[in-house]
Amino acid sequence: MAERFTKSMARNIYLGGSTFFILLFLVLTFDTQSRAMPERDNRDQLTEEVVRGKHVWENNNCVGCHSLMGEGAYFAPELANVFDRRGGGDSEVFKMYMNAWMNAMPTNMPGRRQMPQFNLTDQEIDDLSSFLEWTSKIDDNGWPPNIEG
Amino acid sequence: MKYESQRVAMPYFIFALVLFAGQIVFGLVLGMQYVVGDFLFPEIPFNVARMVHTNLLIVWLLFGFMGATYYLVPEEAQTELYSPLLAWILFWVFAVAGTLTILGYLFVDYATLADVTMNKLLPTMGREFLEQPTITKIGIALVVVGFLFNIMMTALKGRKTVVNIVLITGLIGLAVLWLFSFYNPSNLTTDKYFWWFVVHLWVEGVWELIMAAILAYVLIKLTGVDREVIEKWLYVIIAMALITGIIGTGHHFFWIGPPEYWLWLGSVFSALEPLPFFMMVLFAFTMINRRKRNHPNKAAILWAMGTAVMAFLGAGVWGFLHTLAPINYYTHGTQLTAAHGHMAFYGAYVMIVLTIISYAVPIMRGRPYGNSNTAQVVEMWGFWLMTISMVFITLFLTGAGILQIWLQRIPDSGEALSFMATQDNIALFYWARMIAGCFFMAGLVVYFGSFFIKGQASFDEEVRGAAIQDA
Predict the structure, then answer these.
(1) CA end-to-end span of chain A
(2) What is the ipTM of this complex?
(3) Chain B neighbours among A 25-64 (CB < 8 Å)?
């Protein structure tokens, strides 16, 4: 057995197998990105405000504490569904909530986890809210299981 | 050490270990913040400490991989390194750039850092693990290109061994996939999809090639088993790694937008991802059982066995625990993910770097048969303290994760506990994890201490014991 299975056979499995699966991965990526995603991510609603909001999200390293669609840090609540959880699915309510929340930070309650004050402008808070609202509407196979994220 | 230029690995290893210590210090800060929420606030908010913790890990592992490569490629190729000077220049460039970036995280507000590094021109910041300013990302790309040039010029002029070919293939993959870190589309789902091309295809793809190649090299050296046998194993292991791991990327696509067929593809292929790690365990133990010599550097043998076992447990078993879509639906983004991340990174990548350090550093210090017995015993104490601590960190985070899932994820809306209320309920596990973290730190101190013990093993120890019977 050991003699029959030679090094060159092992090498061919490696080369053939990895080439095949790289190509398959590229085909699947093409299908996912070009056919499937446009229907699932509502890219027609990807407004300038949403795009600016993504930059606010990134420039303040929000993912360093929060998760977004389950990815990021696990120190603070999931935010992909915060639009539904805190805004009840209403854009205006959510923007008001976000404005009050962001300006109230940090709470300075002793011993509690603290969210920094990021000194965002009203415009930036609105942009961030729009980004989170858009994110909440992505078809993500029904995740998370409940409203708590 | 057969070639003088292999010595350039030394500064890479030393700097890697210094950054390792920094990583653990910030790990303790984070662990503390999990239980005392306002610890060091507002001086070091959680997100800053986490960024330092994870980025230090990535950078020190890269230093470790580079050191390993500079050490083993010339010896495998049987030639001097193409340019030791270039290796030294790149060392300083990388060390200075890395240090400045970490200092930037600590002393400059992140939004300001994005501003002064002109993130606007090519926005790449603010994504998990890819928080580095764009200029740093470009720097990493340039350092890696220079490094690859140096290594390939060396490998091409000498003997072409399978270890070298696999290692360099892995490193080229690392460099190419890094380019996706510059792609940050404004559509979050596209951003996330290609973000995994760096993160998953590194740690569950090309890094496994690097790990397996380093392990194969160390096993050749320590066991004296025929190269043909080891190379065959190496090919089978990396074949399994890529055959399962590439489509296995799909286990990250379950809940971030991509279509439902990924639920099947990701589940099936990633469920097979433990295979290459299991084979690495068989590989290490079989080679050591069939050893043709008893190498006196027993600490290095312990690390080689340890990395295989812990990588299998951390990456393989703990990855499998939550990789099937119906389970991952509840576990995604909980402390269970953190548990898996900790043991997988420690077992696979931290320990493989410590394995090559354990083997190569004594040789570079003029101790060809390894450190003195006392130094090895202390090093092994460091091994056990760190490894057992990491097992407990993983177990406590797993406990925290299971409880979190039970309280926060499984009940219906309205009955489920909120995120913060859940965190309060699982604080006991975080305290236990914190204690295990302190033991890890103690293990690291013991490990560092072993480097300061004088003396070396002698050839006499080599010929004692089983080696005679085997021969």
Answers:
(1) 52
(2) 0.97
(3) 25, 28-29, 32-33, 36-37, 40-41, 43, 46, 50-51, 54-55, 57-64
